[in-house]
Backbone:
């Protein structure tokens, strides 16, 4: 039985295969409409979500399956003190596959210890978000045609931004990528990612606090929200939240074929005037999430069209 807890659980070949299937789903959706007939996906979301939960549910429905679950811990028996382990043991009796989001780093690993059905990490605290990474990879592939030879800037909250951590870890396996990490000092990429991924693999990267300085060199710009829910101190969040606001003026220095991504939700870090710029691809990115999750559900259930 396979789980997806971390993007490193997938080989490069498996990521390529998921992207190929997702592309085929986009081109031929009718081929896939009954693949998951009589299968059930449980979405256990102990933390809020719009895109991840609903795209998982839409994915299973478009595969002909059914969905059950909860969208907040307070509406589950977690609020009565039930452990994650007990919840997972019980839900494994009701569903064929489980997507779970939890505010505690590592919770999906604890779930996988007791699960008898595949567990998908739909985001665990400030740690990882592997299905967002698959979404990002599908988007990069659709926009650029390959994962090699480009400069990508990650801007904003690189400390708590779990989508950044997962995507860096995934892109580290491809060649010719230069990483530019743009953040205030307090929100820099965690040391363990620099040591265990970037330095260990001798990858090309730099750290800066200036989006303006980096902009002309970027082929891709991955903006992120400052993660209010992970701060210990509201005053720090207020001081840092508007450090970077991408607007049309800043984009004047950007390449004409820059690709702007954002895992969403956005708060204030991309002005709405940017949305109509053809370089803004974040809403297409969100839509891609459903197709790659369809491919992932099929893979983990061992099903083919
Ligand atoms: N990108 C993402 O994880 O969005 P949600 O929090 O809305 O699921």
Residues:
């Amino acid at each position: 039985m396979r789980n997806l807890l971390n993007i490193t659980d997938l080989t490069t070949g498996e990521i390529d295969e998921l992207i190929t299937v997702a592309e085929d789903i986009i081109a031929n959706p009718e081929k896939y409409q009954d693949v998951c007939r009589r299968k059930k996906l449980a979405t256990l979301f102990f933390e809020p979500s719009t895109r991840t939960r609903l795209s998982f549910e839409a994915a299973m429905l478009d595969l002909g399956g059914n969905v059950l679950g909860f969208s907040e811990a307070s509406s589950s028996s977690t609020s009565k003190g039930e452990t994650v382990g007990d919840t997972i043991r019980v839900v494994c009796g009701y569903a064929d596959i489980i997507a779970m989001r939890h505010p505690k780093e590592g919770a999906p690993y604890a779930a996988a210890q007791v699960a008898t059905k595949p567990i998908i990490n739909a985001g665990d605290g400030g740690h990882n978000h592997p299905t967002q990474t698959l979404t990002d990879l599908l988007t990069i592939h659709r926009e650029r045609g390959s994962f090699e030879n480009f400069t990508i800037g990650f801007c904003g909250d690189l400390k708590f931004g779990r989508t950044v951590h997962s995507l860096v870890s995934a892109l580290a396996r491809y060649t010719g990528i230069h990483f530019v990490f743009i953040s205030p000092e307090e929100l820099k990429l965690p040391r363990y990612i620099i040591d265990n991924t970037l330095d260990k693999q001798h990858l090309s990267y730099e750290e800066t606090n200036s989006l303006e300085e980096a902009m002309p060199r970027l082929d891709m710009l991955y903006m992120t929200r400052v993660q209010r829910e992970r701060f210990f101190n509201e005053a720090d969040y207020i001081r840092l939240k508007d450090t970077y606001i991408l607007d049309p003026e800043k984009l004047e220095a950007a390449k004409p074929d820059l690709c702007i991504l954002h895992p969403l939700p956005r708060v204030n870090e991309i002005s709405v005037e940017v949305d109509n710029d053809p370089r803004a691809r974040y809403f297409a990115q969100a839509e891609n999430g459903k197709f790659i999750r369809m491919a992932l559900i099929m893979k983990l259930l061992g099903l083919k069209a």
About this structure: The chain has two domains: 7-128+286-301, 131-281.
